[in-house]
Amino acid sequence: MKAKSDALREQVRKTSSAKKEGGSGRLPHAERRAQILETASDFFAENGLTGQTRMLADACGVSQRLLYRFFPTKQELVAEVYREEILGAFKAGWFVDLQNRNLSAEERFTAFYVDYLETTLTCKWLRLFLYASLSDASMAPDYITSIVTQLLEVLMREAAHEIGIDLPDDREAVHEMAWTLHGSISHYAIRRHIYKASWNVPEKQVVKMHVRMFLAGLGAMVEAYNAENS
């Protein structure tokens, strides 16, 4: 994120200079709003959700007063960034692809997680999500409830169908089993982008490792759960 931070500081410098030179920087309403949102997402990913709106306004090249005309409160701006950058990064089409039984579960799961890593679990997305989780008690649970829980159920249903097993009736237990795959991929992304580690083995190869381990062990996982809870 250092490059992003440098770019943000350079943007603040340029917009400050433009103001001094008398440039109005006037844009159509929709364009200005989109520009504020894009800059805000970079700003909050770099500085956290506690970043000051004064600095954000400078980065956007607008006054705080104009910023609040588009977003009357900081909470509204943060909520819109969350909807656009966190929720909006998930492709609804993934659910369709994951249930295409013309391909093996390994092929489907691998393709999904490779794409998910490249388009959603990016450095920016992870930083925003982690900052949101620390600053707002509802954002992370909302994301899990609205998106991840459905994903976990699709993964388990498709894996169980391919292996030919029945899943336990306990929905929460089924979710925990799916987290053994989804959590491992998510933490892999954290290791890469936050810890700056795990860059030597090709990404697709790592994804295949986790997918194969999950599929190979699911039958034993379900059998052990049933034995312990019968």
Assembly status: single chain
- SSE order in H/E notation? HHHHHHHHHHH
The share of residues in extended strands comes to: under 5%
Main beta sheet strand tally, sense and closure: none
Can you tell me the residue ranges where pLDDT is under 50 for at least 5 consecutive residues?
11-24
Summed up, the helix count is 11
- Count of DSSP strands: 0
Averaged pLDDT, please?
88
Q: What is the CATH C level class of the largest domain, in words?
A: Mainly Alpha
**Helical amount:** over 70%
Pfam family, one: TetR_N
Protein name: TetR/AcrR family transcriptional regulator
Keywords: DNA-binding
Can you walk through the features of this model?
It comes from Thalassovita aquimarina. Residues 30-89 form the HTH tetR-type domain. Residues 1-27 are annotated as: Disordered. With 230 residues, this protein is an all-alpha fold. It has two domains: 2-85, Homeodomain-like (Arc Repressor Mutant, subunit A, Orthogonal Bundle), CATH 1.10.10; 90-228, Tetracycline Repressor, domain 2 (Orthogonal Bundle). Helices cover 76% and strands 0% of the residues. It contains eleven helices and no strands. Helix 2 (29-47) crosses helix 8. The longest helix is centred in the last third of the chain and has 26 residues, at 203-228. The chain starts with a helix and ends with a helix.
SSE diagram, text form:
Blueprint: H1 2-20, H2 29-47, H3 53-60, H4 64-70, H5 74-86, H6 93-98, H7 105-119, H8 123-135, H9 139-163, H10 171-193, H11 203-228
